[in-house]
Amino acid sequence: MDAENLEVLNLNKKSQFSYYLPEELIAQHPLLSRDFSRLMVLPKGSREIKHDKFYNLCDYLQEGDCLILNDSKVLPARLRGKNIDTGYEVEFLLLRQIKLGVWETLVKPGKKAKEGYRFIFGSGETTLTAYISKILPDGNRVIEFENTLNFFEKLEKIGQMPLPPYIKEKLEDGSRYQTIYARDLGSAAAPTAGLHFTPELFEKLREKGIGLGFITLHVGLGTFRPVKSENISDHKMHNEHFVLPPETVKLIESTKNAGKKVICVGTTSCRALESAYEKYGKLEACEMFTDIFIKPGHKFKVMDGLITNFHLPESTLIILVSAFAGYGETMHAYKEAVKNGYRFFSFGDAMLII
After folding, report:
1. Which 3 state secondary structure label does DSSP give 233?
2. What is the chain's percent helix, strand, coil content, to nearest 5?
């Protein structure tokens, strides 16, 4: 058995994907300019790291390459509601729309949100009312909104961004937790690798002949769910819905046929493309759910490069990065990022693996 396969066999413990991270390196707010984030460039299978800025991304791409981006838009899904009868305040987090006006939610405190209780959100023209129709086995609540007219317009006015638990500071401008190309509402968390792009950088990419293609994968809160089992193969991945449109498939095919590279912006884009290929044996336009868990040993069929942020220790995301860049190379890069004071997680800096 060769050394690479032996290494993959031994990479089955979540503790192998841990690293030391000082708390002060967890970015609490976005930079003033999106593309002023730092960019670590890691050649695939190498430890020859380069340090740069994101606005120089074009320097590392070739004419004819393409970027695949996730255009899902984050729902301002955190709502504070008052019990219509008692006046008690309860926080709701919209997780998943079951059908029009019916949502699965996280609720706290749960003891103040019993079946049948009615709540009011907002005031005046933006008022929404809902009642709890069901309590699920895991404690989540199904709530039904009683008037869905202009629902999303009202939600954007009264809801708050559901920032990750490691961000403790208030976000003054909610648009900074959206990519500039976000257009399809549905995510509970941002596809954060895309937060670094600006209109000016998009223009530079187009001028250089870099293709831009889009998928839509609605990011669920499961993206923050820790791997609890020590054996990573025992971890149950969360389910996420995505759409891969025909025009993106055509762009990828033409890029591949020209011998150029397909670079995924974010692990969500990667998971969507690899899932579609895994299902059909080739890349086809589709709409489906994915619970793919990409770990060392995965043979990438579509992705040639990856733009991603720096992820939590022992997370499925750092495991995915290790599968693509190489385990030793990834852990070395993370140590270098800490050593050089990179900013981590959602509002942090970026890495290009190519």
Report:
1. helix
2. 30, 25, 40
Q: Structural domains in the chain?
A: 3-74+173-353 (3.40.1780.10), 78-158 (2.40.10.240)
Locate tokens 């019990």: which residue?
A: 83
The one-letter code for the residue type at 262 is: V
Cα–Cα separations (whole angstroms), residue 269 to 67, 173, 310: 10, 25, 16
Residues 8-54 have pLDDT tens digits of 558 999 999 999 999 999 999 999 999 999 999 999 888 899 999 99
pLDDT digits (tens, 9 = 90+) for 188-231: 889 999 999 999 999 999 999 999 999 999 998 777 778 999 99
Specify burial of residue 11 (Cβ count, 10 A radius: 0-12, 13-18, 19+): middle
In terms of Cα–Cα distance, which of 342, 339, 311 is closest to 325?
A: 311
Give the other-Cβ count within 10 Å of 228's Cβ.
10
Task: Note the residue count of the chain.
Answer: 354
Q: Are 191 and 219 in contact (CB under 8 A)?
A: yes
- Whole-Å CA distances, 47 to 166, 227, 309, 320, 333: 29, 27, 18, 18, 7
351: its two tokens: 């890495």
